[in-house]
Write a sequence for this structure.
């Protein structure tokens, strides 16, 4: 939702990655943003204004001396574009344009608009490795970072020359994710630190086998995205995931419940919120075999299990009030007596809120893209949500977290 109705100014400069900027413009429009495109003269050698006009349904700007019409008024185009923007993205940004932006040169529309634009600046560099690594370019990057610009990429990969190296423009989806993160910085969770757990833990039986569950991590990743979009600094502690982790989220990858427990406690200091969406194994094999278990002639294999630490319960009890995160939210994955079991978990784990998840529902819960949940608060308040995409469930949970923090 964060891009809905936002005015994004997209600067495109002259590099082969300019064709990918068309995909970025399309993705931004699909996410609900109004996209105004500025092409530099060099960019028009790679892509045409018509490409972007077709995708954005808006005029494309190329001329620093041009006037634009806003309602009844005629305005200087670069002033009008700069004033209206919520975010200025330059993708791809060449070494030449990085230098121009760092020095504040206004000899074309992109440079002049950047100088007049108070909106945050997001830059996606693309160039040959030697140009990127050159001290002059790195100095310009430092200057721009110090001034508050955010960089996404460049990535390692195949470059226009055919060589492999650092200099590929970040993928459009990664730029879009970073745009969301930058736009969210002043959101309701600004300056809050949020730790989220995700995925199903793996409990080793022997060197090749594990006990696990069907969690894909989609719910936890969506929560991390929603908290990031609300302005939080997010740390996602995750067991293996079936989905990638988007930009702007710090990650700690773990495998077992014990590793997840240790990772959570290693980052708990100064944490405002903990959300436990992971499906943490309650038990692990008591003695993981050192060598692969052979089936031999045995018809039966008994495995002794021992309890894993309960991460959420321990966090809630963490040196009691003093160092406990101010808000602790759990999930309850239930196959029967949803409300009763969820309420009991909220009480025994001393949670502020629990997301009750009936995982018997078709198209919901483990592995699905959607989820049907009930939000239960410790004061008895309940909110039953319809089947929604996990991203929307995450936004509702994060909105509740924001409200709870506001009251503390
Ligand atoms: O990952 P997806 O495929 O997107 O699926 C999402 C989900 C179904 C996994 C998610 O919505 C969900 O319900 N997560 C919690 C699953 C779970 O293990 O629930 P539980 O009722 O067993 O645990 C209750 C709470 O205690 C959970 O917040 C859990 O993270 C936490 N817990 C459990 C055991 C343990 N040893 N330590 C814990 O912290």
């Amino acid at each position: 939702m964060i891009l809905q109705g936002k005015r994004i100014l997209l600067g495109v400069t002259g590099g082969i990655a300019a064709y990918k900027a068309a995909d970025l413009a399309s993705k931004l429009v699909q996410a609900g943003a109004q996209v105004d495109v500025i092409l530099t003269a060099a960019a028009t050698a790679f892509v045409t204004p018509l490409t972007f006009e077709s995708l954005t349904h808006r005029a494309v700007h190329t001329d620093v001396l041009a006037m634009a019409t806003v309602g009844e008024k005629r305005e200087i185009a670069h002033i009008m574009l700069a004033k209206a923007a919520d975010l200025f993205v330059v993708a791809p940004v060449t070494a030449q344009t990085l230098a121009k932006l760092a020095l504040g040169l206004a000899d074309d529309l992109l440079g002049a608009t950047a100088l007049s634009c108070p909106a945050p600046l997001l830059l996606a560099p693309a160039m040959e490795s030697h140009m990127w690594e050159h001290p002059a370019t790195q100095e310009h990057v430092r200057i721009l970072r110090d001034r508050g610009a955010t960089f996404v990429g460049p990535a390692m990969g195949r470059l226009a020359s055919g060589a492999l190296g650092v200099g590929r423009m970040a993928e459009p989806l990664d730029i879009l994710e970073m745009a969301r993160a930058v736009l969210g910085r002043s959101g309701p969770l600004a300056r809050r630190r949020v730790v989220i757990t995700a995925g199903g833990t793996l409990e080793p039986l022997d060197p090749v086998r594990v006990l696990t569950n069907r969690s894909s991590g989609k719910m936890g990743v969506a929560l991390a995205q929603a908290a990031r979009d609300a302005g939080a600094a997010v740390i996602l502690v995750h067991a293996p995931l079936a989905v990638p982790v988007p930009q702007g989220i710090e990650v700690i990858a773990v495998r077992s419940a014990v590793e997840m427990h240790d990772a959570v406690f290693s980052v708990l200091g100064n944490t405002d919120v903990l959300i436990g969406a992971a499906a943490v194994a309650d038990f692990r094999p008591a003695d993981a075999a050192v060598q692969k278990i052979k089936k031999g002639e045995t018809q039966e294999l008994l495995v002794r299990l021992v309890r894993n630490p309960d991460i959420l319960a321990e966090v809630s009890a963490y040196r009691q009030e003093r160092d406990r995160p101010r808000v602790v939210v759990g999930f309850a994955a239930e196959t029967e007596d949803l409300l009763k079991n969820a309420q009991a978990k909220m009480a025994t784990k001393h949670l502020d809120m629990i997301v009750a998840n009936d995982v018997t529902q078709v198209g919901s819960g483990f592995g699905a893209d959607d989820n049907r949940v009930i939000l239960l608060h410790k004061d008895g308040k309940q909110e039953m949500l319809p089947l929604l995409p996990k991203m929307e469930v995450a936004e509702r949970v994060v909105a509740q977290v924001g409200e709870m923090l506001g009251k503390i």
In short: The pocket of PMT is lined by residues 197, 215-219, 257, 276-280, 282, 308, 310-312, 330-333, 345, 357, 359, 365-367, 371 (CB under 6 Å). The CA atoms of residues 68 and 80 lie 8 Å apart. The domain at 188-406 is CATH 3.40.50.10300 (Rossmann fold). The mean pLDDT is 94.
